[in-house]
């Protein structure tokens, strides 16, 4: 007979030490990193002390009480292939195992990285519950070599880690369906990322021109916005074709990466490299629509931010299918990165349709209200907290059963 567990009230009153891992810290400004940072802050507010391990710089900039430690890693994959895939050095593996010993539950962002492998092995070694947040499924890279590497990495890394996890949290309905044969419904949940609607909100009609003036943008030119890393999978080749085809539209690109749009030499392309929070929200409000010709996405945070700012969104079908409830608010386009010209033509038809009918204030408000209700960080973090506590209780009950036996 198994020993009795504490009551739910007792369980919820106890602080729960969380060890969280991601491949990089927030300073890299990638979607996974931004979500990890927001989630850590929300969990801390709910009484989950969190230690964040990741590669690169950024640990020292984390706000109290969030604690961070930098993991030393090699970055050859990013240098040679343009893929943000750090490989942990031996000292990093030792750090992960040490930190796992002190934690009560391990939360890792995406199963594809070497941080995920280390977290999985450390969780099993110390008999700690492992919860995986799965952000992506398969990325259909334009380069056939990268597509083959992605399939191999999913098979050799992601799938074993997902099978090993005590619970998997999917941020997208499409990603959940992609891994349905590997992760059963009993140990999986669909929890959408949140969006800060205090920062990202729609403008009043006069605010649009104020935001444009503050960003040195022309007052009477249509502005199509792209937000994301400047990498192939985000559809930079499609954006380049769009900008060439429509010199009458200003393409505002916010992000960083090796595929720098400045190198296109096009006068109707403006690049913003360091916007975040309120300054990024101002760019959303200054724009007419969001373009996201990417592939292999979960549910990009930029789509949620754009909706919260009231913008129409034209995106790839991967993103549009991530949340069935949001489908009517998005304009899906089939993206084929091996045919950027053809993909650009499909996007152009959507752009022409949206720009021909300027967005009404009521439509902006409808998108904002949907985002505020559907993508609340407070609700998402509360669900994460429930899953983390349940995973700890489940592992504890298994231990107690073995001890009694």
Keywords:
six-stranded parallel β-sheet; disordered N terminus; 2 domains; disordered C terminus; alpha/beta; Rossmann fold; globular; 15 helices
The count of β-strands is 15
User: What is the name of the CATH topology of the largest domain?
Assistant: Rossmann fold
- The portion of residues forming beta strands comes to 15-25%
Which whole number gives the mean pLDDT? 88
Secondary-structure element order, as H and E? HEHEEEHEHEHEHEHEHEHEEHEHEHEHHH
Share of helix, binned:
40-55%
CATH superfamily of the largest domain: Glycogen Phosphorylase B
Spatial sequence of strands, sheet with the most strands: 3-2-1-6-7-8-9
| Major beta-sheet overview | 7 strands, parallel
Architecture blueprint of SSEs:
Blueprint: H1 8-13, E1 18-24, H2 31-45, E2 50-55, E3 67-71, E4 73-74, H3 76-81, E5 87-88, H4 90-102, E6 105-109, H5 114-126, E7 130-134, H6 144-164, E8 167-170, H7 173-178, E9 188-190, H8 205-214, E10 223-227, H9 236-245, E11 250-254, E12 269-272, H10 278-286, E13 289-292, H11 301-308, E14 313-316, H12 317-320, E15 330-333, H13 340-356, H14 361-374, H15 377-404
Parallel strand pairs: 1-2, 1-6, 2-3, 6-7, 7-8, 8-9, 10-11, 10-13, 11-12, 13-14, 14-15
Antiparallel strand pairs: 4-5
Helix pairs in contact: 2-15, 4-5, 5-6, 8-10, 9-13, 11-14
Structure description:
There is one protein chain. This protein folds into two domains: 8-194 and 376-404, Rossmann fold (3-Layer(aba) Sandwich), CATH 3.40.50; 205-374, Rossmann fold. The chain contains 15 helices and 15 strands. It is globular, with a radius of gyration of 22 Å. With 405 residues, it is an alpha/beta fold. The longest helix has 28 residues, at 377-404. Helix 2 (31-45) packs across helix 15 and helix 5 packs parallel to helix 6. Residues 1-11 and 400-405 have low confidence and may be disordered. The strands form three sheets. The chain has a seven-stranded parallel β-sheet, with helices on both faces.
């Amino acid at each position: 007979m198994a020993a009795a567990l504490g009551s739910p009230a007792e369980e919820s009153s106890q602080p729960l030490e969380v060890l969280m891992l991601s491949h990089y810290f927030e300073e890299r400004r990638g979607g996974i990193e931004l979500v990890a940072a927001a989630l850590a802050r929300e969990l801390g507010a709910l009484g989950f002390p969190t230690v964040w391990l990741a590669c690169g710089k950024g640990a020292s900039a984390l706000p109290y009480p969030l604690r961070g430690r930098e993991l030393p890693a090699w970055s050859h994959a990013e240098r040679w292939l343009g893929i943000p895939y750090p490989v942990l050095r031996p000292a990093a593996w030792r750090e992960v195992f040490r930190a796992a010993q002190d934690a009560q539950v391990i939360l890792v962002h995406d199963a594809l990285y070497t941080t995920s492998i280390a977290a999985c092995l450390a969780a099993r070694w110390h008999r700690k519950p492992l919860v995986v947040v799965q952000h992506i499924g398969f990325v259909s890279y334009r380069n056939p070599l990268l597509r083959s590497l992605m399939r191999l990495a999913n098979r050799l890394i992601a799938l074993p880690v997902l099978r090993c996890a005590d619970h998997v949290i999917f941020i997208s309905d499409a990603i959940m369906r992609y891994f349905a044969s590997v992760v059963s419904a009993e140990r999986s949940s669909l929890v959408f990322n949140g969006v800060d609607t205090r920062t990202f909100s729609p403008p009043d009609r006069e605010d649009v021109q104020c935001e444009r003036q503050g960003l040195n943008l022309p007052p009477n030119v249509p502005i199509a916005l792209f937000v994301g890393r400047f990498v192939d999978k985000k559809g930079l080749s499609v954006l380049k074709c769009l900008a060439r085809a429509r010199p009458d539209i200003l393409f505002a690109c916010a992000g960083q990466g090796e595929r720098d749009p400045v190198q296109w030499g096009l006068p109707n392309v403006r690049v913003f490299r360091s916007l975040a929070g309120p300054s990024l929200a101002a760019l959303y409000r200054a724009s007419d629509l969001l373009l996201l010709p990417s592939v292999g996405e979960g549910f990009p945070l930029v789509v949620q931010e754009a909706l919260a700012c009231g913008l129409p969104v034209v995106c790839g079908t991967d993103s549009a299918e991530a949340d069935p409830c949001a489908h009517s608010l998005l304009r899906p386009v089939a993206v084929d990165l091996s045919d950027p010209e053809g993909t650009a033509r499909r996007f152009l038809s959507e752009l022409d349709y949206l720009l021909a009918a300027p967005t009404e204030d009521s439509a902006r408000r409808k998108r904002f209200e949907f985002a505020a209700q559907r993508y609340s960080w407070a609700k998402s973090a509360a669900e994460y907290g429930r899953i983390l506590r349940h995973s700890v209780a489940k592992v504890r009950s298994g231990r107690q059963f073995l001890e009694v036996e």
